[in-house]
Amino acid sequence: MSGKEHKILIANRGEIAVRIIRACRKLGLDFVCVYTAPDAESGHARAAAEAGPEKRLYRVSSYHDANELLAVADAAGATAVHPGYGFFAEDYRFARRVKQRGRSLDFIGPSWEVIRALGDKINTKRLARSLGVPTVPGSDKPIYDEMEAEKFARTIYEFQLQQGIEHPVVLVKASAGGGGMGIEEVDDMDLFRSVFRRIRNYASRQFKDEGVLIEQRIRDFNHLEVQILAERGAGQIVHFGTRNCSIQSTGLQKRLEVAPGFDPSAVRYRFDAAKLLAEITEHSLALAREVRYDNIGTWEWIVSRDGTPFLMEVNTRIQVENGVSAAVSSIRGKDGTDLIAEQIRTALGEPLGYTQDDIRFDGVGIEYRIIAEDPDRNFTPWVGRIERFSVPERDRLSVHTHVPYNRPYDIPTEFDPNLALAIIRGATLEEAAARGREFLDALVLEGKSPSGDPLVSNVAFLRRMTEHILMF
Amino acid sequence: METEKQLQRLNERLTYMREIFADKDNEHIRRLEAATADYASRAPDLGARERRDALLSLEEDFASVEQALDASLTPMDKVRIVRHPQRFCLRDILENVYDGYTEIGSMDEHSIDPAMVIARGYITRRHGKRVTNQSVMIVGHEKGHGEEFRNGGSAKPWGNAKALHYMKVAETENIPVHAYVFTPGSYPIEDTPGAAQQIAANIYGMASLRVPLIAVISEGGSGGAEAVALADRRLMFSHGYYSVISPEGAAAIEGKPDPGGRVSPALVEQCAGRMKITAEDNLRMGYVDQIIREPDLGARPYHYDFFRSLRQELLRVTDEVSISVRGLPLFRALRLRSRRKRAARGLDFETSYVRWNLPPSAQVLLVNRRHRKFRDLSLHAVRDLTPLSRRIGDIRREVGWIVYSRFRHDMLQKRRQKVSEYVEEVKSEWTLFFERALAPLHKLVALFGRASERLSVETVRELTELSEWNDNQEQRGRRWAYAGAGAGEDRAVSCPNSGIHGCLDQWAPDLYGEFAGVCPNCGHHFPMEYQWYLHNVFDEGSIVEFAEDVEAGNPLDMEGFSAKLAASRQKTGRKSACMVFEARIKDVRLITAMLTADFRGGTVGAAEGEKFIRAAERAERMRFPFFAYVHGTAGIRIQEGTNGLIQMPRCTMAVRRYIDAGGLYIVCYDTKSYAGPVASFLGCSPYQFGIRSADVGFAGPAVIVETTGLPVPPHYHNVYKALARGHIQGIWDRRELRFNLSRALLTMGGRNLYYR
Q1: Does B27 contact chain A (CB < 8 Å)?
Q2: Lower CB density within 10 Å: C or N end of chain B?
Q3: A27 and A67 part of one domain
Q4: pLDDT, tens digit, 9 for 90 and up, residues B532-550
């Protein structure tokens, strides 16, 4: 690519590693994978081992040790690192180290300055407010003084009372946190100080940053995302539409995602949904331009029942669910958009090559995350061996999985228990939902736990939730 | 029988001579040996008279030889005299100098610390027909003629604590203290109350003890001596030594022997000489006031004349201290002068009675005198190269501030405070009145409209719009004004705790940059250079250094040391190990004294002590908080000998004055802090904090093994251990130092702070 022979170190595992391998192949790029001992049988390790006679697979003791990953990069002669999601994906220090070390590598993701600017909730919020992008009512600077914090929290509490909210709740969250970590709710102001102290200590211990935000808790909302892609140098910044990720586990982990974010042609909303989607897209682009965003990223929004949007945070990485956005979009009339390939291509310096006008959206996409867990019992993960696994083959359906179809598979316990991702496309919401249900019915997933109990999964939950998608 | 005894005594004298000259071949001694042997063989055959004559002539020989040898004593010979089991000890003084005494808290080995003896003694004086028993509190080290349980007079921390306790009892009883120093040094053990911390407490306590303090030094070894030797008059026995470190210790540092290997005796001799440890040296430098003459080759228990003269000297000196602060100033001087004249004519102090208890006004004067006395010591060892214009500028600046701050903070603020207090009071009365009066109306309003629940525009704006925020002041989180020097290298750094906590290697630019040298996994603090603190703790650009031209010198003209100092100056660009400056933390002004490990290991000599004292005094005058940041100190600079050692009491007294005036003195230890400074002006602070992963203690592990023979457990001096033992008051994360200090400045300390 662009004259230089690139080789990508895939510093991740499982499903995302498999997808990155596929994207590399599509782009004609060489790659190298890492794996840990429990992952020896995982799909990405097999794919790397089977890719050719050259050594493309290195064993490491942990995916978390940057020193080891970079040692592999040097040994294998890699020229770029793809962090996937999780692990080092949003670690601006890793991105900076990769770039600034003696043997510099390309980081496949936004430049480290951008990751740093948007990795901090306080900074993101201040950037947003400076551009008039709506954010959750609450603080936009770190408050260290307990008395000041409590005074502020009381203001938020009363603010909610005045709005007619019966049981106001104040959120205390670590500025550097994410994914539901370092957040606590307070509904009794007498408890505020102790919660504040706890979160602050947690934040300084966990994230080395004492910054704490105090916000109103928005209830009854939908979780929307805007998919952004930008080339290096932030010349062209485009979006790939919106997604709705409101269906989540009790631990606020996404389970079912739909693109687009709302569908006014099929569902009646209390607000002008089309206008709202346009608004949050425009706000997201504005912020992206402001920080000179230069790779793939997701702007997370929450939308309250009355149609008020609030920008929550920006994920400066590829996500699990970007495939569903890709499924409903086409570039210059060509289907089969591959956002990971686009991410790699642009991260290595290639220009985007098209504009927003070349991107079209068509139909509705649904993504299911199939997981061995028990939705009736707080989504407790199920551990055991998968004995039978097969998915139906359908048109406009793609399944990503690292679980083998032809032999039993022990679910590793130390990682995210995602077994498969299925993306289904329909011309309309109704058609997509119908195809989704049909897919779930045809799916075979059986197994036994060490004590002989049958496998428990979230398939029935996903089927039930399919009835409600995009409703608000 | 008689002959046997006398022979034995002579043989003991011979042994003594041989031992103090360390078996150096000596013709005189050989001659005496021959004569003694000859006498021993002849004696049985001699008649009684002849025997006595022979003995007398032999004793004359002994005396003349002793006299001859005394003139040739080297400093190291004196060290051997002082350590010899035949030398007189505290018990001999108690029995021969005082008319009676009661040991307090000890009976031979039955004592909390047999190396430290406390006794309540009295001296009987007859004047006219009246007989008066004058009480004194006697505090001193007991070597006990080689009794092993006495530990050679090396006092343990609790022994020093007992000494301080009874000096305070003396204060309560208003009787003078006689302190006897017979110690090679303090026993280096950290157990509560801690060697260093207790010595610091002793010095701090003695600094302003309101009774006459008289110290007499026989063996004055370092911090152990300072723990009891701070006094209004310091006497010294002619054959004693007073030194910052034992000659062996100095030689070990100078000669750098291989581990386990010994340094050569020649080097030890040489060090003893160069360190200027004798009574004459210390008298010349001003660290003792007077020398008490001992018999040739040093006093032993049978030198009764010596004890008599010691008693006379003690009476004279104790009287003098009392007289010099009692009564009207004019009368005082006259009385002192006439007394000195009479003493020169042979006044017998046994019959001239002077009261030793002091009225309150005399007590104040006594303490002030003591402070002034120590303030003036060691000035000759300091080189102040500050140009005159700078000095004048400094004074002008200081006076300007004092005038301004008096006006701004005292007059205005107090007046404003009064007015606002009054206004508030009126307001609250008024509100109360209105609330009562309008209560029915409020109820009515509440019934009708929900007017009060309308959102105030102000609140909405506060909660949803961009707020003002200036984070330059905070410097918390990861935005450091200065990154460590290690941040420039592309390498991974291993945490020493990785074996225990599984810490991953950190990339140096992250570790020394954003992480501020702190392992993100276990919190281990890697050492950072002092510049990091200068930039990240104090307000940007607020540091104004002063006294930077006070230069560390080589007052004892140690061979090769001037070159070493020059090398240090070259390396660090500083003239001493102590940097004193005025700065701000979140706009609160303060004075900081910093000891930097880069310059001669952060050791404290006369220059460093002088700068520290000037800083404390300036803080007092300007009513600033005073912060001592110890970036590392290895102790007192041994190459300066007692010029360095005397900084322990000098600086501690300055701190005492500052604290008593109502200031705020905070100490913060980083990296490694040991020995003298910790055992005095640092350890006496009520607010001592350790930076995580720092070590604080009295003697380093090698010295402990060397002197006690005990193994040192791992992390023995770690700040967590120090905190558990009660030596320090808290442990601070480097990244929070600025914040913690800022909070401390606003909430701690006394009344003499300009912003209070």
Answers
A1: no
A2: N
A3: yes
A4: 999 999 998 999 999 999 9
What domains can you pick out in chain B, each with its CATH number?
2-72 (no CATH), 85-359 (3.90.226.10), 485-514 (no CATH), 530-747 (3.90.226.10)
Residue A471, beta-bridge partner list: none
Instruction: Provide the residue range defining the domain that includes A199.
Output: 137-216
ipTM, two decimals: 0.87
Residue B151 token pair: 């530990």
Strands A181-186 and A170-178: antiparallel
What's the average model confidence in pLDDT over B459-485? 77
- CB contact under 8 Å between B477 and A209, yes or no, is yes
Report how many domains make up chain A.
Answer: 3
Which of A342 and A15 is assigned the larger pLDDT? A342
- The last residue of a domain, from among A176, A199, A216: A216
What is the interface size between A and B, counted as CB pairs within 8 Å? 72
How far is the C-alpha of A322 from the C-alpha of A226, rounded, in Å?
10
Q: Taking residues B726-744, what's their average pLDDT?
A: 94
Question: What does the pLDDT read at residue B1?
Answer: 58
- Residues of A with Cβ-Cβ distance to B507 under 8 angstroms: 66-67, 93, 97, 101
Q: Which residues of B1-18 are buried (b: 16+ CB within 10 A; e: fewer)?
A: eebeebbeebeebbebbb
Which residues lie closer than 8 Å to A115 by C-beta, 6 or more apart? A90, A91, A92, A95, A109, A316
Q: Which residue has the tokens 């000659």?
A: B247
CB contact under 8 A, A158 and B459: yes
A127 lies in some domain:
no
Closest Cα in chain A, distance from residue B567 (Å): 34
- B478 interfaces chain A, CB cutoff of 8 Å: yes
**CATH number (domain holding residue A313):** 3.30.470.20
CB contact under 8 A, B478 and A134: no
Answer for the pair A422, A439: CB distance below 8 angstroms, yes or no: yes
The pTM of the whole model exceeds 0.90: no
Q: For residue B470, with 0-12 CB atoms within 10 Å meaning exposed, 13-18 middle and 19 or more buried, which class applies? A: exposed
Question: Which pLDDT band holds residue A143 (cuts at 50, 70, 90)?
Answer: confident
Q: How confident is the model at residue B523 (pLDDT cuts 50, 70, 90)?
A: very high
**Would you say residue A116 lies in a domain?**
no
Q: What's the pLDDT band for A125 if we cut at 50, 70, 90?
A: very high
Q: Does the pLDDT at position B418 exceed 80? A: no
